[in-house]
Amino acid sequence: MFSPRAFVRVWLPIAAFTALHYGTGMEHDWAHDVLRRMYYLPIVLAAFDHGLRGGLLAAAVSSLVYLPHAFSLSPGHHHDPGGGVDKALEVLLYNLVGATAGLLADRERSRRRELQRALADQQRLTRELVRAGRLSALGEVVAGLAHEIKNPLHALAGTAEVVGPLIPPDADERRMWDIHVAELGRLSRLAERYLSFARPSPSELVALDLRRVAEQVAELCVAEARGKRVEVELDLPDTPVDIRGDRDQLASLGLHIAVNALRAIASTGRPGRLRPESRRANPRIATVNCPGQPAGQRPTRVSNRWAMSRGA
């Protein structure tokens, strides 16, 4: 209310109208009527700029500076020659107009803020939809690549079944052949996992061992971890961590967390370690023991701990 803008738009006009009012002779009735109503202009501007508080303050100041001129009985003083009732109602209207305009201005500001928040939410949702569309397209590409990779793998696996019996069990080449067959199986499972990630199916809750999910995620991210100089270290209990859940969705979630962890470690420019852990608090619930987790915090239904530690 006391900024340079308020001084120009509110206080200077009030002072100017008051000076003109006090300096105008009583014989100029029309001039007093005009000047009396000119106070509405700074009152409304104050309400638009500062809301209810600004409108009421400008109305109160206008009333205070006008009242001595309106009802002064001092001899030789130029007072407003208008009727007493008219002048009293004018002062009352100053305050009513200031309050009404201020309330309307505050309501308009509130709606504008709501619209700005709604617009920001809409823009955020639009960005998320665009990102989801890109991820969907990327998923289709991954699905196509995984499918194309599986076709020659099936052919190689069929060839391995034919050639395998031809190699004697005690031959030196047998060990290399077994490694070859094992790697074919691993590549086939890897392609199948990427294919399931790219084409998610409806959730199907089944009994599963959370350790197997952690192993699956570690196998999927080990190649990227090696390129970022990050060691993937599994820390799993000896006993099963039995839960009910969707294996593919849990693995997808774990892979997403692991990739984010790899990027965070790589951003430091130093080697690091990624360690998936699975722990069970009781026979039904698998919990997370995160660093800094308050004691007694309610455990989550399913969780993994992804501990990141920077190497020396």
TrEMBL record:
- Pfam families to which the protein is assigned, alphabetical: HisKA (PF00512)
**Residue stretches making up the Histidine kinase domain:** 144-274
What general EC class does the enzyme of this chain belong to? transferase
Q: Which UniProt keywords apply?
A: ATP-binding, Kinase, Nucleotide-binding, Phosphoprotein, Transferase, Two-component regulatory system
SMART domains from the UniProt entry: HisKA
Q: Does the keyword Hydrolase apply?
A: no
- EC number(s) on file: 2.7.13.3
Q: Which GO terms describe its molecular function?
A: ATP binding; phosphorelay sensor kinase activity
Q: Which domain of life is it from?
A: Bacteria
Q: Per the record, which residues fall in region Disordered?
A: 285-312
Q: Which SUPFAM superfamilies match?
A: ATPase domain of HSP90 chaperone/DNA topoisomerase II/histidine kinase, Homodimeric domain of signal transducing histidine kinase
Reaction(s) catalysed by this chain, per the record, are:
ATP + protein L-histidine = ADP + protein N-phospho-L-histidine
Which InterPro entries would you find in this protein's record?
Answer: HATPase_C_sf, His_kinase_dom, HisK_dim/P_dom, HisK_dim/P_sf
> What's the protein here called?
histidine kinase
Source organism lineage? Bacteria, Pseudomonadati, Myxococcota, Polyangia, Nannocystales
